[in-house]
Write a structure and sequence with these properties.
With 277 residues, the protein is an alpha/beta fold. It has helices at residues 7-19, 35-47, 75-84, 95-98, 117-120, 124-139, 151-163, 193-198, 200-211, 218-229, and strands at residues 2-4, 24-29, 50-55, 89-91, 143-147, 169-173, 232-240, 253-261, 266-274. A six-stranded parallel β-sheet has the order 1-4-3-2-5-6, sandwiched between helices. A three-stranded antiparallel β-sheet has the order 7-8-9, with helices on one face. Strand 8 (253-261) and strand 9 (266-274) form a beta hairpin. Bound molecules: pantoate. Pantoate binds next to strand 2 and helix 6. It is an enzyme of class 6 (ligase).
Length: 277
């Protein structure tokens, strides 16, 4: 596996794949890889002639009081893991390489970026769509792989590709969980021992709410999650998916999505399901 840090070198490496019309899989990540990323990469390896994984903690998607500096990083370990699962190129550029100009064109991700995680992370999805668009332009992948854990991000990227006619297939990959049900996340390392024990109750409560979806009540749902997790709910919402609108009787697929604050970390989780299942 090659670790490449410049756009020029990456495009030189990919040139023969474009010429031969071969398929390129892109797995965008912010590094500190876990099993969730490995699952994305394995799917990409199975479905493409070559796989590029990006490893870049994108500053434009972090707010001023968020954990950009503290976000865990370990390129050496990432390279080992990516290599093991068959990634051909790990693209790990510097911030200067990705953002050489100040004050240029920025992104406005639209109304679906202002709810759920976007409500407490203003501008976050503008930064996500900015970096994802740059990666799509740089790599020109056939398929791009995103986890369903970040369901709002996934929905917005689907909208981006649809609305801007990008010739890329988005491949959603199911949430990978620890044995006790906690969704895998690079940020789980910030949980205290007690929080780590209680955190799986977020998913367990979502499952209970799903089973009783006909009587879903947001206020009661907050109480249930907080009692079970001892965390503070940022949001719990039931929306249509992937358009993220209030549910109507016409909607068949919905998302039950929640975010929860602990002392040093904010966890998200969701269940996407068909109504009546
Ligand atoms: O999901 C992530 O890790 C990031 O938001 C992404 C898609 C790699 C963009 O920085």
């Amino acid at each position: 596996m090659k670790v490449i840090t410049t756009i020029q070198e990456l495009q030189k490496e990919l040139a023969s794949y474009y010429v031969a019309n071969q398929t390129i899989g892109l797995v965008p990540t912010m590094g500190y890889l876990h099993e969730g990323h490995q699952t994305l990469a394995k799917a990409a390896v199975a479905e493409n002639d070559v796989v590029v994984m990006s490893d870049f903690v994108n500053p434009t998607q972090f707010g001023p009081n968020e954990d950009y500096e503290a976000y865990p990083r370990d390129l050496e370990r990432d390279a080992r893991i990516a290599d093991e699962v068959g990634v051909a190129i790990l693209f790990a550029p510097s911030v200067e390489e990705m953002y050489p100009h100040q004050g240029g064109v920025t992104f406005e991700a639209g109304p679906a970026s202002k709810i759920l995680c976007g409500a407490s992370r203003p501008g976050h999805f503008n930064g996500v769509l900015q970096i994802v668009t740059k990666l799509f332009q740089i790599v020109r992948p056939t398929n791009a792989y995103f986890g369903q854990k970040d369901a709002q991000q996934l929905a917005l990227i689907e909208m981006l590709v649809r609305d801007y006619n990008m010739p890329i297939t988005i491949r959603p990959i199911a949430i990978v969980r620890e044995e006790d049900g906690l969704a895998k996340s690079s940020r789980n390392v910030f949980l205290s021992e007690t929080e780590r024990q209680l955190a799986p109750n977020l998913y367990k409560t979502l499952q209970v709410l799903q089973r009783n979806i006909a009587s879903f009540n947001q206020k009661k749902a907050i109480e249930q999650i907080e009692a079970a997790t001892k965390g503070r709910v940022d949001y719990i919402e039931l929306l249509s998916y992937p358009d993220l609108q209030p549910v109507t009787s016409e909607d068949t697929q919905v998302i039950l999505a929640a975010a929860l604050y602990y002392e040093n970390v904010r966890l998200i989780d969701n269940i996407i399901f068909k109504v009546g299942e």
